[in-house]
Specification:
By secondary structure, this protein is α/β, with parallel strands linked by helices. The chain is built from 8 helices and 9 strands. It has a 7-stranded parallel sheet with strand order 3-2-1-4-5-6-9, with helices on both faces. A two-stranded antiparallel sheet has the order 7-8. Helix 2 (40-52) links the parallel strand 2 and strand 3 (57-59). The longest helix is centred in the middle third of the chain and has 35 residues, at 104-138.
């Protein structure tokens, strides 16, 4: 039997990159997945891949920072699948700048996507979590649900030019530790994975061919300086950045039954790199 057979997972930002790899990894082990992306095209691509694996998937499109998004994705998931067993708060992006050039808009955008959006999703899920846990206890049934929040080594150690991004990624670590204490009584494991250099469109070399993400009416250039990529590859003990599939593997470890007694922890998926 597959390790996640019968489970339902929410994975935000799962139309591309790491999020898609996480969604596929969970689906490969039997989970039904609520896919999220800003755009229909990437979401439908992920759904098609999940269905090809023999699992179920639906989509909840839209910006995770919208005030009603948390309520909407929780309702859509319950309506579609009848329950929630795994929540992966993965959606995010970097909008960089040194502090003297960083606007209030940039600062709040980073806090909104990396901290406020996960907060709203977990708050929206709390009624279901508490009610389901109480019912299961009364019936003599017990099993663990999982929350995995996504952070970054920038949130742990800081990174020049990423004041807002680092602050948002540090905030999700504190949220993780707090929620592990609040939701432990409901048999929910709440953990966090901090990624290092993972090979996605966010970490490709900047230049004329660099990707541009459209966030609402805003266009944000993706990518980092080639010199920094070269430096990172030299500093990573494993000698390279990770793949999205390797990043997904770290999240998967915290979703399976073998991690039922692990909660409130921060796991680095950085190839051994620490500052």
């Amino acid at each position: 039997m597959k390790k996640l057979e019968g489970k339902t997972a929410i994975v935000t930002g799962s139309g591309r990159g790491i999020g898609q790899a996480i969604a596929l990894k969970l689906a490969r082990e039997g989970a039904k997945v609520m896919v999220n992306d800003l755009d229909a095209g990437p979401a439908e691509e992920t759904i098609a891949k999940i269905r090809a694996l023999g699992s179920e998937a639906r989509s909840c499109l839209g910006d995770v920072t919208a005030a009603d998004f948390g309520t909407r994705i929780v309702k859509d998931t319950l309506d579609a699948f009848g329950g929630i067993d795994i929540i992966v708060n993965n959606a995010g992006y970097a909008w960089d700048g040194v502090i003297q050039k960083m606007t209030d808009e940039q600062w709040y955008a980073m806090l909104d996507v990396h901290a406020t959006a996960p907060f709203r999703i977990l708050r929206a899920a709390s009624d279901f979590i508490r009610t389901a846990a109480k019912k299961e206890k009364e019936e003599g049934r017990s099993f663990n649900r999982k929350v995995v929040n996504i952070s970054s080594i920038a949130g742990m150690f800081g990174n020049a030019g990423q004041m807002g991004y680092s602050a948002g990624k540090a905030a999700i670590v504190g949220m993780t530790k707090t929620m592990s204490k609040e939701w432990g009584r409901y048999q929910v494991n709440v953990n966090c994975v901090a990624f290092g250099l993972i090979q996605t469109r966010m970490t490709q070399p900047v230049g004329s061919g660099a990707a541009v993400a459209k966030i609402g009416e805003r266009e944000v250039k993706m990518g980092i300086q080639p010199e920094f990529i070269e430096f990172m590859n030299k500093m990573i003990p494993l000698g390279r950045g990770g793949t999205p599939e390797e990043a997904a593997g770290a999240v998967y470890l915290l979703c399976i039954p073998e991690s039922d007694y692990i909660s409130g922890e921060l796991l680095l998926a950085s190839g051994g790199f620490v500052m």
